[in-house]
UniProtKB/TrEMBL annotation:
Subcellular location, principal: cytoplasm
Subunit structure: Homodimer.
Lineage: Bacteria, Pseudomonadati, Bacteroidota, Flavobacteriia, Flavobacteriales
Species of provenance: Flavivirga aquatica
Coiled coil start-end: 271-298
UniProt protein name: Asparagine--tRNA ligase
Record has Iron-sulfur as a keyword: no
PROSITE patterns noted in UniProt: AA_TRNA_LIGASE_II
PANTHER family: ASPARAGINE--TRNA LIGASE, MITOCHONDRIAL-RELATED, ASPARTYL/LYSYL-TRNA SYNTHETASE
GO MF term set: asparagine-tRNA ligase activity; ATP binding; nucleic acid binding
Length: 477
């Protein structure tokens, strides 16, 4: 007999004399009702046991967390709450679970506790819903690019360059760290290291993606990204996933159009395909909101927020306009910002980004044309000589979700900018080559995948939207 999934069976509206299903017991109530889940849906299937027909010893082993194999008849449910249920004919205990020590009890657990039990947390409704949505979003991303003529490119994970120039990298080495070889100056001799040079885990696949855009036209990367920034916030991970499209002959306006269309499309995909999980998380968020003071509550439910993004244009605002708004806004005047905004040129902090998105514009915002000296070296210099063709997309509840730019395609200006921040030309000779041989306008952006998953699930901590989070002082599992 073919093994069926809970998801399949719950969508049946006929009786089926013999069904075969395997899953984990969520609860066993009144020695009679098993709520069984197999991960295929947030919903459990109710399996009804006539205990008179079963051995007492077997019934005792039907405990929360146990893996079971059930055969029975799919029938119209007698009780409320479900359309169909399984009238059980046989139960096989595949794996026992000790009810005394099983961490995932059928009650509400704190997210902190579940993080410590990340290997079991996807056995809860909340985390199974989040991770199904994560999977669905990543499918939607590949689908979008595939349908729009992009090639999927695998950027290297081990690199010799610091794409963002921020110096927040994890070293990759196989030198003996106790006794590394030293050069004449007494420094570590990386020429003796595995790759014959200093290498690190990538902070972005962009520079490599640019080489592919300048030959294949439209490409994207979607891979793990590593940053050793010591920011222990609810929005930063040391290991996260980034999506980086890069397109030849596209300017900043085209980049904004692409980013907006892309974000809307992937959000629409989950609205169309992951209704049960979204409705569950929507309700969870509403319950959480009720515990907050009225003034801090969100005006929209999760599903309303997702619909809002797909249905409305993102507001496009220059950095200079944004600074004007921030300089004159109430919280700035009342000194409510931790970092007050006084002059043009300062970097925006998350408190400012969130003010713009959540209080001022009340919609996703694309900020562009930032001061050159707060942005990366590869962004195209504007004619004013002081701003670059950068863009950041800010989302409600998240702040920055996308960072991108039109790239500097002029060799002389790129060299000047690299020199100004001491990036040796030898290190990026191949990147400069792109500007020597058939250079052209091109643009791209990076979407932080976990920030997208946070937005899509309404979760407030980035550690709860990646299977096994890596953060300062934590690499368990
Ligand atoms: O703004 P960032 O640093 O841009 C780049 O890396 C460019 N190379 C992208 C490009 O133009 N191809 O990072 C892009 C996005 C951010 O907007 C944020 O969503 C996410 O990556 N991000 C992080 N997400 C989680 N944890 C971190 N430590 C992150 N750092 C950046
Ligand atoms: Mg950024």
């Amino acid at each position: 007999m073919k093994l069926r999934t809970v998801s399949e069976l719950l969508s049946e509206d006929i009786t089926i004399p013999e069904v075969d299903i395997k899953g984990w017991v969520r609860t066993f109530r009144a020695n009679r009702f098993i709520a069984l889940n197999d991960g295929s849906t947030i919903n459990n299937i109710q399996c009804v046991v006539d205990f008179e027909n079963f051995d007492e010893a077997l019934l005792k082993r039907i405990t929360t967390g146990a893996a079971v194999h059930i055969k029975g008849e799919l029938v119209e449910s007698q009780g409320k709450g479900q359309k169909v249920e399984i009238q059980v004919n046989s139960i096989d205990i595949l794996g026992d679970s000790d009810p005394e020590t099983y961490p995932i009890q059928p009650k509400k657990h704190s997210f902190e506790f579940l993080r410590e039990n990340a290997h079991l947390r996807t056995r809860t409704n909340t985390f199974s819903a989040i991770m199904r949505l994560r999977s669905s979003l990543s499918y939607a991303i590949h689908k979008y690019f595939n349908e729009n003529g992009f090639y999927y490119m695998h950027a290297p994970i081990i690199t010799g360059s610091d794409a963002e120039g921020a110096g927040e990298m994890f070293k990759v080495t196989n030198l003996d760290t106790e006794k590394p070889p030293l050069n004449d100056e007494g420094k570590i001799d990386y020429s003796k290291d595995f790759f014959g040079k200093e290498t690190n885990l990538t902070v972005s696949g962009q520079l490599e993606a640019e080489t592919y855009a300048m030959s294949l036209g439209k490409v994207y990367t979607f891979g793990p990204t590593f940053r050793a920034e010591n920011s222990n916030t609810s929005r930063h991970l040391a290991e996260f996933w980034m999506i980086e499209p890069e397109v030849a002959f596209m300017d900043l306006a085209g980049n904004m159009d692409l980013a907006e269309d892309f974000m809307k499309s992937v959000i629409k995909h989950i609205l169309d395909n992951n209704r049960d999980d979204l409705e569950f998380l929507d309700k969870r968020l509403q319950d959480e909101e009720k515990t907050k003071p009225q003034a801090e509550r969100s005006e929209m439910t999760l599903i309303e927020k997702l619909n809002f993004v797909t249905d409305n244009n993102f507001k496009r605002v220059s950095y200079t306009e944004a600074i004007d708004i921030l300089r004159n806004c109430k919280p700035n005047k009342k000194k409510k910002f931790k970092y007050p905004i006084n002059e043009w040129g300062v970097d925006l902090q998350s408190e400012h980004e969130r003010f713009l998105v959540e209080k001022h514009f009340k919609c996703p915002v694309i900020l562009f044309d930032y001061p050159a000296n707060i942005k990366a070296f590869y962004m195209r210099l504007n004619d004013d000589g002081k701003t670059v063709r950068a863009m950041d997309i800010l989302f409600p509840g998240i702040g920055e979700i996308v960072g991108g730019a039109q790239r500097e395609e002029r060799l002389d200006i790129l060299k000047e900018r690299m020199a100004a921040i001491n990036i040796p030309e030898e290190d990026l000779w191949w990147y400069l080559d792109l500007r020597k041989f058939g250079t052209a306008v091109h643009s791209g952006f990076g979407l932080g995948f976990e920030r997208l998953v946070m937005f899509a699930t309404g979760m407030g901590n980035i550690r709860d939207v990646i299977p096994f989070p890596r953060t300062p002082q934590n690499a368990e599992f």
